[in-house]
Amino acid sequence: MAVCDVIEQAARDCAASWGIAKVHSRPDPILKDAGIDAVFICTSTDTHAELIEAASSAGKQIFCEKPIALDLASIDRALAAVESAGVKLQIGFNRRFDPNFREARERIAAGDIGAPHLLRITSRDPAPPPIAYIEGSGGLFLDMTIHDFDMARYIMGDDVLEVYARGAVLVDPAIGEAGDVDTATVDLQFARGALGVIENSRQAVYGYDQRLEVLGGKGRVQVENPRPHTAMLSDLDGDHTPPLLPFFLERYGESFVAEAQAFVSAVLRDQDVPVSGRDARAPVVMAIAAKRSLDENRPVRLSEVE
Amino acid sequence: MAVCDVIEQAARDCAASWGIAKVHSRPDPILKDAGIDAVFICTSTDTHAELIEAASSAGKQIFCEKPIALDLASIDRALAAVESAGVKLQIGFNRRFDPNFREARERIAAGDIGAPHLLRITSRDPAPPPIAYIEGSGGLFLDMTIHDFDMARYIMGDDVLEVYARGAVLVDPAIGEAGDVDTATVDLQFARGALGVIENSRQAVYGYDQRLEVLGGKGRVQVENPRPHTAMLSDLDGDHTPPLLPFFLERYGESFVAEAQAFVSAVLRDQDVPVSGRDARAPVVMAIAAKRSLDENRPVRLSEVE
Amino acid sequence: MAVCDVIEQAARDCAASWGIAKVHSRPDPILKDAGIDAVFICTSTDTHAELIEAASSAGKQIFCEKPIALDLASIDRALAAVESAGVKLQIGFNRRFDPNFREARERIAAGDIGAPHLLRITSRDPAPPPIAYIEGSGGLFLDMTIHDFDMARYIMGDDVLEVYARGAVLVDPAIGEAGDVDTATVDLQFARGALGVIENSRQAVYGYDQRLEVLGGKGRVQVENPRPHTAMLSDLDGDHTPPLLPFFLERYGESFVAEAQAFVSAVLRDQDVPVSGRDARAPVVMAIAAKRSLDENRPVRLSEVE
Amino acid sequence: MAVCDVIEQAARDCAASWGIAKVHSRPDPILKDAGIDAVFICTSTDTHAELIEAASSAGKQIFCEKPIALDLASIDRALAAVESAGVKLQIGFNRRFDPNFREARERIAAGDIGAPHLLRITSRDPAPPPIAYIEGSGGLFLDMTIHDFDMARYIMGDDVLEVYARGAVLVDPAIGEAGDVDTATVDLQFARGALGVIENSRQAVYGYDQRLEVLGGKGRVQVENPRPHTAMLSDLDGDHTPPLLPFFLERYGESFVAEAQAFVSAVLRDQDVPVSGRDARAPVVMAIAAKRSLDENRPVRLSEVE
Hints:
Chain A has two domains: 2-94, Rossmann fold, CATH 3.40.50; 95-250 and 274-305, Dihydrodipicolinate Reductase, domain 2 (2-Layer Sandwich), CATH 3.30.360.10. Helix content of chain A is 40%, strand content 24%. Chain A has helices spanning 8-18, 28-32, 48-57, 72-85, 99-109, 131-135, 140-156, 173-177, 248-251, 253-268, 277-296, 302-305, and strands at 2-4, 22-24, 38-41, 61-64, 89-91, 116-124, 160-168, 183-190, 195-201, 209-216, 220-223, 231-235, 238-241, 300-301. A seven-stranded mixed beta sheet of chain A has the order 11-10-6-9-8-7-14. The longest helix of chain A has 20 residues, at 277-296. The radius of gyration of chain A is 20 Å and the shape is globular. Chain A starts with a strand and ends with a helix. Chains B and D meet through strand 13 of B and strand 13 of D. Strand 12 (231-235) of chain C pairs antiparallel with strand 11 of chain D, so a sheet runs across the interface.
């Protein structure tokens, strides 16, 4: 129906590519357009909360990229606006729609591994982003681990009560100078008693590495990385397979489509969206707690930072 | 631009789904439409040759599903029509566009395994088709192995001189009563000296099984089956991964898109299509020779059936 | 008890290493030694038949390395001697005792894959032997494929009726000058209807490659190569695992021990040995038929060469 | 030369099996035997320190099972005795001799992955031991994780400065009643800056699970579990491989032989043993620190418990 971008030419190019009729450089015309039922908010994080509030007031159904905000007060205002307007809000935690992780979640939910005991998430970017990006990112936990915090809740079907984070600057000293870490581990204490570990790095030279494993009382489920192709070369040095997929667009391409379809379907059928406001808030709480844990080198309960 | 189907409702449904303006139940209006540059012939095999001739006369660029025909005379007439009309003809050997096999071909063509010595193609359907289909299929070699014959030439970059086929009825006696086999092996003698083996079955209960391996003087390349997902379940009985992808639409989905893009690109840039008329004809010759080999239980040179 | 070697120093060294009391350079003292119940004949192939006959006459239980002889007349004389003496004879087809192939055989025998339809054996040496060895080897089929012929019968629990062999000289022209081939495929027609293919090469630069796969009506079993270790290295170029085990001593080490234990156990308990005289003869028949098939380029029934 | 066991019949049976001449039920005769150069101490943990001191005084070279003791004072006395006697002492951290982990260590030491950034050790027993064993074990960290603490130091070639442990009772409440945990994660801070995580469980129903992975600046090395065999079964439900090896005797069999050979070789050549007294002590310090961390729910520096 309509596309908006503060850079008007970008909006025009997008509209041309996708056969979209209306082009705007400000959101108001979309919010006022009675023919538009739902909006996708894909702007920079600092604009999410305000746009959610405006879209709620306009009675639009809302899909918004993660996170709503980097502070809880803004998130809570946005969620309150959504609730009082009675609209739907789905947050773009796309990894929940990855067919590999989804399969693991379904196996666990079906009881195939018994009660979960131990979760491990391995999540490593192929290379660090530019320092300018790091500086505005809110730090590793809010920028990168936040996806893993959401995945932890999704895959375990449980909430986290306490975290302990350890971080290091091993990839690039400039990241340390920017006040961030590039390598981290975060321990998780789940409400039902299970333990968890997240391993992060800003740099895995062999490709974008996204795996997890859950041990339960009756078994285990693990999710390995998909590969760019299934050909293997063998020579005098042994067997060789290619680097992992380069980054999130290649690795999670299907999931971006699937989350949009799920949102559209929920709107059309007036059903609950599959990622709730509570799901939107919890990973931010975890990230804030992890940051405090790192700063103070002690385990931090989520209730401390709520 | 336009879609044609002898079942007019099917054509209408297709047009509606894809926003196609014109709908026909006979091909003539398309062939006479000066605004149409190219046609995709996706009808039953027995109509391919005639439609190629008609489209050639009309000066259309042609994509046609495999095979052109089950007899060489028809194929040769169609190829002659294409040549005299000076149009392009690309045959739908879609597996050449599978990214996994393509990677293997590129490694071999790049010399990474040295000169190829030995090819093995494992090609097994998940379940046999209905007997009515078998009866009209031209037999296993023309219906199923024909893809493997094409793959053999594609992956090795070489022609086959002689074949020896062995067949058996092990999956369903009704297939034997219909005059066909459901299990087969075909040996290949390549022009540059390499050997090859194709293994076929109409039934692999664990899913659609499509692999190959080439041994060369400096190494080997092998292509394994892609999986529906990368989750693995472990329990008291060990590790479990799911059945292979169900069938060709799931396994080769990307390749159907890629072959169409390659055809469109060749037409737009006036370049050679990536699957030539010679490529269209050779697998049929191989299939006819394999059938004679099976019937007479002896190796058959392709020159005998040309 | 005693060791014999025509090179007396070799016998002495062996005796010293293993704490063996008696050392001989001729077999007679062993055959006459009433304290010795059983002998292992591990000499060159051309001496096997004669030594089996002598050991049978002396009433010894016999383990003999494969094959008994390269011609059927000698084999038949040796087997007749064994039978008339009422002693046991176990032939050293050690691969039957490999735990990986054994597992496959047990799964098949237990009916886990239903009736077998299609066998594939991939059997490739890491590098060709010296030409002098090739010249005295009896050719690829009697020297190398003979193990695969035995494996085919063992794993399928069935006999072969007919073979078709194709060969090529692709690894080293000197092998061709010596009258042999270095690359081959052999088709097998089993008595109960199944088909089989053996792929051989004298040279797989990535290591000793020994795999097989059986497709059945209800499933499949495949045996992959064991690896020297389970460590994998990943870098900018992808994932890397080491070459396969170098050759048969590393790959089949356990099986040599297990076959000796099985022989000793059969002798001590007076039970049938697990590799019979019929098992000793059949692969030689298959190898002779394969050679004739290669020479005459036609399928050869085993009954032709019996 | 001689074997000693407080249960004399056990000593006699052992001597008979292995052809050992002398049998004792007390260690003194061995320690006084001038013909004996070296001893293996494989008794219960609470006797190790005293026996090391006695053997040192007797001038014997010593191999002792891990750990020397559960308290640092006893360890330090034993190490002091060894040092003042000038004898060798090798502690039985057998996993260092596992060829899979050894390969990983060699790749890291060779610089193939660059500087190590992140270690993960997954170490899970197949089933918990009897509660009586748990009660006398010193707890999970001293009994089970101690191997992983040693592996962490071995594989990284670095010391640990601080640990943070989290534990849970999820497998069997009786373990909790015995004052222990059955599921745990331990974070490690290495001296050179790298981070590490150990994941432990007393119960992995799919078999004895022993893996590790190290991410470095230039790559990664990971060690997977070896398998009991390489056969895979496929059926309508997918692909199936067997449970992992049952327990440490099967998984680490080779390493027990290799560590004994390394000790003998070091004694014969008068070289340093490959597992030093410092290596013996450090994992106990780590275990004590981990226990304190668990009890006090805070990170604990090793210097606190030294």
